[in-house]
Every structure is written in structure tokens, then in C-alpha cells.
Amino acid sequence: MVCLPQPDAETLARREDIRAALCAIVPGEGVISDQDELRPYESDGLTAYRQMPMLVVLPETVEQVSQVLRYCHANKVRVVPRGAGTSLSGGALPLSDAVVLGLGKFKSILEIDYDNRVVVSQPGVTNLAITEAVQDRGFHYAPDPSSQIACTIGGNIAENAGGVHCLKYGLTTNNVLGVEIVLIDGDVVRIGGKQLDPAGLDLLGVVVGSEGLLGVVTEVTLRILPRPDTARAVLLGFPAVAGAGKCVADVIEAGIIPAGMEMMDKPAIECAEAFVGAGYPLDVDALLIVELDGPAAECDYLITEVEAIARANGASFVRISQNEEERLRFWAGRKAAFPATGRLAPDYYCMDGTIPRRRLPEVLERMGAMSAKYGLGIANVFHAGDGNLHPLVLYDANQPGQLEKAEAFGEEILRLCVEVGGVLTGEHGVGVEKRDLMPAMFSEVDLAHQQRLKCAFDPDMLLNPGKVFPQLHRCAELGRMHVHGGKVSFPELERF
Ligand SMILES: Cc1cc2nc3c(=O)[nH]c(=O)nc-3n(C[C@H](O)[C@H](O)[C@H](O)COP(=O)(O)OP(=O)(O)OC[C@H]3O[C@@H](n4cnc5c(N)ncnc54)[C@H](O)[C@@H]3O)c2cc1C
Predict the structure, then answer these.
(1) Which residue has the CA at smallest separation from atom 28 of ligand 1?
(2) What is the CATH number of domain 109-226?
(3) How far is the CA of 101 from the centre of ligand 1 (A)?
(4) Could you tell which of 69, 82, 101 is best to mutate to test the pocket of ligand 1, judged by most ligand atoms within 8 Å of the CB?
(5) CA angle in degrees (0–180, nearest 5) for 178-180-184
(6) Which of 25, 296, 351, 457 shows its CA 20 to 30 Å from the CA of 190?
(7) What is the pLDDT, as a whole number, of residue 338?
């Protein structure tokens, strides 16, 4: 179980004063303090962890966000920014002595500029709503997390969200051109904009993926792309996982970058098929869904190439979508795969790690062995093209000890990802979930330097503390800190 920073008793004692001050900044129904009404905020998509926040504030204007942060900074109150609360790494998990700052009221698209192919939006707009706003003119916003009907564009920026089509079109970081961000002292800063190559340091790259630790995003400028002329999906079934894994690497090696290349193992295929009837084969051990897009002639050519590579790797089932309805049906199974695993177990723990593509067969085999070791089932549904695994560890939270086993299983999977040359996260972020595993990937010196960047934005560690970094260093000390031989300086400081 992860530990969070100890609540500050002195802050909790000031709860009523803090509530009154926030009500003065955001009048009306802008502050939630009633225990029943706070309940919906007690967790995010990582529901295994829950904690009630001290208060929730729902500002409606940038000026209110600025005043809330200025107040919290002056009064040393911790703040947890929150979009739709779909984070799977516990990024929006509240702290019991913190104010949750919800961006749910920032729901407007501010500008659609087709000449420059950008959309300027408030952060509380859902990912899908961006595409819906421009699709009549033949455009779309490419990053498409499976949670796109619910998750917000602000949350996408904080987590550097990905999705099926990010293999070809890039993650959030490749599709954001600018942000307005409010710093903890209330300053409003603009970084980037409609131009492609802004001057100065690449602070945008720092902000994207910063998990609510550096500031609160209040406006985003996003790149939109024309929809491709044609998109066709191919289902490829393999009698062995190894063949599917090798096919993925061979397709990329051949110089083909599909719009998406997803993989599902047998348990995932079976429950997704039973859930939506997508037309998946049930006599295979692994299924690839490969989407090719572009001009029709290019699509046809690439489909032939992909099919040949798949057959050379032992594919026993090939079906090519013949129309848009069939293409969407192929994807419907993949998109419903997470909820469909509810047929296999009451709970699942969704992991997120990335590995080099060539190691897929070996890693899947080793995860199978872990499943036997822990006595817990596993289903795999993932972005195979970019090596981004999403093993779903199946468990029953009502059975004593199963959550702890699922956590241990998940940790072993992530350590395996690092061991084979991969990374701890692909798109869900570190949050609280992977925080304590950061030393498996980064040295103490690496982590200290990352924290110094955090200190430049938030010297009092008030924004989303307890997330991402396995230790809380005091910034003044970090500034002159020299870590030697892995020895932790200042042992009296709070460690989780
Ligand atoms: C069923 C399901 C499927 C999913 N599929 C995918 C997927 O395919 N790809 C993927 O990448 N993710 C996926 N996710 C995870 C999640 O949807 C993403 O991480 C998403 O980007 C979170 O957005 P949110 O608005 O819900 O943010 P929240 O969960 O509210 O917050 C996430 C983090 O962002 C910070 N934050 C939120 N808004 C702001 C802001 N305005 N300014 C600063 N910080 C902010 C929070 O502090 C927190 O650290 C999935 C989740 C679920 C439940």
C-alpha cells in the first residue's frame, strides 16, 4: 500500500478559515465541504486507493484559480489539481489536508482556427469534444485515450496521455502547441502558442506530463489534423503469442507505421468478443488489430504488406474491414476490453509499462509465469506498436490479501519492463502508483535533479505532493545538495 504525506494537523485545524477564504474567492456553490458531497472526490480511476480531501474548490475563471493558488501559497495549504478524475496512477488522489482544485467548470472551446489548424480550449473540455468540434470540417485531434469520452484535455496534458493512434500521430506532447498555466504563487504564465517554434527554453516539454506538480493548466492550444482519406483495420489472429509479438516488430522494421497496432491475448479476446461481438476469432492465442490510413491506394498496398508479414509469422486468421461500420466494430471490442474483463474478475489493476517491441514475446511469457506464481489471472490489451503494455491483473478486492498480491504482481511486471530496457510508464503517469518504483529507473542524482526543477516552480512543495517523487526533499536543501554513494542526506526529512 502506498503511503501519502502525513496530514498537517495545524492545517486541518484551520479548515473552517480556509473554507471561508475560498468561499470569498469562489462564491455561490464553488466550495464543497460537506462530507457526503466530498465523497465523489475520494479517489480517481485507481480506485484501490481512497482518501477524502479536506475541501474541494471549483473555480470558474482564471482569476479565481490565480486567487485560490495565491491564497494557498500564502497560507501553506496543499493543492491537488483535478480534471475528470480518470487517472489510473492515482495522480488526482486527494490528500486529507489538501484542497482539490477541480477544473470541471472550464468547459469552453475558446477558438477554432482552421487557417492555423489549431483549437484553443479550456482544460475541462473532454478529449473527444475537441474532435467533435472540428469533425464537420474534416479535422480531428489525434491523441485518443480510451477514456476520451470522459477525460479532460487538461488531464491529458498533465499525464501526457496516449491512445491507439499515437503510434503514427504522436502523444499529447506532440500535439500541444501552447498552454496558459497558473503557478502556485498565482502568477499566470503563457508558454508557446499557435506558432510552431516558439523562442526560449522548451518549457512546454516540461509542463506536458508534469502530473499537476508544476502548476494548473487553464488554457491549451492544440494542433488539429485533417482526417485521412481512408482508414481500414485488419484483424490478425495467431496461434501463439510469440508470432504476434514478432509480427509487430517486423511491421515496424519494414518501415510501415500503422495508424494503430493493438494486441489482445486470449482472455482479453474472449471477454471482449462475448461483450460486444466484434467478430474476433476464438481459436487463437493472440490478436492484432492493425489500422492503416491515408490515400486508398496506399492503404491497399500497406494492407497487402502487413498481411504478408503476418502470414510469415504464422497468422492463422486474417480479416480486413470492408466498410466503415466493420472497421468501427473491430475497434469496439478493443475499446470495451477493459470493462469486459469484469466478466473474469470483480476487480482489475491496470498496469502501464513500456518495453522494446522485440522483447514482447519474452515479456508476455514471463508475465504468464508470474500469474501462476501469484495465483491471479491476467488479461493483456495493449498498444503493441509502441511497446506500451497494459496488463490487467485480475483480483477480488473483497478477498483479504488479494489487493496486496495484485500490487506485488504489478510491481514485478514494472520491474521486468525496466529490466528488458523499457520504462515504468507509457501513458498513465507515475502518480502514487509507480512513485516508489522510480529508483528502479532513476539514480538518486537523477531524481534529485528532477526535484530541483519542481522546486523552481513550487518551492514549498504545495502542488500535488506525495506524487511522482519517492522522497520529499526540502527545496532549500536540494539547491546545495550533493548525493554521494546513494546516502540520503537530511534523514530527518519526511520519507514515504
Ligand atoms: C477506462 C480508462 C481507460 C483509459 N485509457 C487511457 C488511454 O488509452 N490512454 C491514456 O493515456 N490514459 C488512459 N486512461 C487514463 C486517464 O484517462 C488519463 O490519464 C487522462 O489523461 C486523465 O485525465 P483526467 O481529466 O481524468 O485527469 P485527472 O485524473 O483528474 O488528473 C490526472 C492528473 O492530471 C492533473 N491535472 C488534471 N487537470 C489538470 C490541470 N488542468 N492542470 C494541471 N494538472 C492537472 C492531476 O493533478 C493528476 O495528477 C484511461 C482511464 C480509464 C479509466
Answers:
(1) 85
(2) 3.30.465.10
(3) 15
(4) 82
(5) 135
(6) 25
(7) 87
Q: Are strands 230-238 and 286-294 parallel, antiparallel or unpaired?
A: antiparallel
| pTM to 2 decimal places | 0.92
Say how many Å lie between the CA of residue 216 and the centre of ligand 1.
Answer: 14
How far is residue 309's CA from residue 315's CA, in Å, rounded to a whole number? 9
Q: Tell whether the model's pLDDT for residue 236 goes beyond 80.
A: yes
Q: pLDDT at position 39, please?
A: 97
Instruction: Could you please state the CATH topology (level 3) that the domain comprising 9-102 is classified under.
Output: 3.30.43
Q: How far is the CA of 344 from the centre of ligand 1 (A)?
A: 25
Distance (Å, rounded) from C-alpha 410 to C-alpha 348? 11
Cα of 159 vs centre of ligand 1, distance in Å, is 6
Q: Mean pLDDT, to the nearest integer, of 337-364? A: 90
Give the pLDDT score at 481: 52
Instruction: Please tell me which residue, 357 or 477, carries the higher pLDDT value.
Output: 357
CATH 3.30.70.2190 fits 230-338, yes or no: yes
Which residues form ligand 1's pocket by a CB distance below 6 Å?
44-45, 80-88, 91-92, 103, 123, 145-147, 151-152, 154-156, 158-159, 161-163, 211-212, 216-217, 338, 427-428, 464
Residue 489 in this model has a pLDDT that exceeds 60: no
C-alpha 449, offset from chain centre: 23
Grid cell, residue 110, equals 475558446
Distance CA 317, CA 77 (A): 58
- Of ligand 1's listed atoms, the one at least distance from the Cα of 338 is 1
Residue appearing with cell numbers 492465442: 285
Amino acid at 121: S
Q: What's residue 463's pLDDT? A: 97
- Kindly report the average pLDDT of the chain as a whole number: 93
What is the Cα–Cα distance from 38 to 41, expressed in whole angstroms? 6
Residue 75 has pLDDT above 80, yes or no: yes
Q: Do domains 230-338 and 345-419 have the same CATH topology?
A: yes
CATH class of the domain defined by 345-419: alpha beta
pLDDT per position as a tens digit, 197-233:
878 888 999 999 999 999 999 999 999 999 999 999 9
Every domain of the chain and the residues it spans: 9-102, 109-226, 230-338, 345-419, 451-496
The whole-number average pLDDT for the span 140-166 is: 95
Mutate to test the pocket of ligand 1, among 64, 108, 146, 390 (most ligand atoms within 8 A of CB): 146
Report CA torsion sign: 344, 349, 350, 356.
negative
